[in-house]
Amino acid sequence: MKAFLSMCFLFVLVSSDVWHQCYRHIYRGRGVSEFCSIGEDSCISNFTRFNLDDMIIKTERWGCTSDCTPGDYSFTTLEDIYFRRRIHCCQGNKCNNQSAPGSDPPYNGLVCPGCISSSFEDCQDSETVRCRGEENLCIEFVMAYYGFNHSDMAFKGCATRDFCTLARASVAYDYIFDKIKQAQCCHTAEPPTLKSKEVQP
């Protein structure tokens, strides 16, 4: 009897991990699920859409994971240049049932200085950007295009706190950027160049 109970208990422990399921694709409200491997105790949905340097790219990913950090990475500037990435994490059977966003987040009433130039000195202070969604910080940064026949570019615009934290870390981010450098963030309606108003990540 004890051996039987032990086997039942072991089956429950193993099945709760091995038979955990997450969606791996969702289209028009219908999803296809997959069984997760041992150790993959979380589900993830990851939506990316960006237009940087006249290159519009959209990616969607669902699946199982053992390492998931949620985040709302968003940046908007002039000339319809933007970056959006939202990562959802959850623990539960088929809990990653989020659909990919169909459009840009709505304007939130905040504004920031806007610029796309080879240097900040060439930026016009009169140009502004309307912020979207959770973008509540102003940002300025330089994007370095290592390995490409492209000069560094200076950007000013609106950003979420997660994007500011990423930019200030000055690291490469997937295949989207080679490197962001000289990033500064401040609250909206205050020029990013005011060092005393910088927002800490």
Automatic annotation (TrEMBL):
Main subcellular localisation: secreted
Domain of life of the native organism: Eukaryota
Signal peptide residues on this chain, from the entry's feature table: 1-16
PANTHER family on file: COILED, ISOFORM A, LY6/PLAUR DOMAIN-CONTAINING PROTEIN 8
GO cellular component: extracellular region
Cited SUPFAM superfamilies: Snake toxin-like
InterPro entries, sorted: CNF-like_PLA2_Inhibitor, LY6_UPA_recep-like, Snake_toxin-like_sf
Entry protein name: UPAR/Ly6 domain-containing protein
Pfam family, one: UPAR_LY6
Localization (cell): Secreted
Keywords recorded for this protein, A-Z: Disulfide bond, Secreted, Signal
Chain ranges of the UPAR/Ly6 domain: 33-97, 108-187
Native source species: Podarcis lilfordi
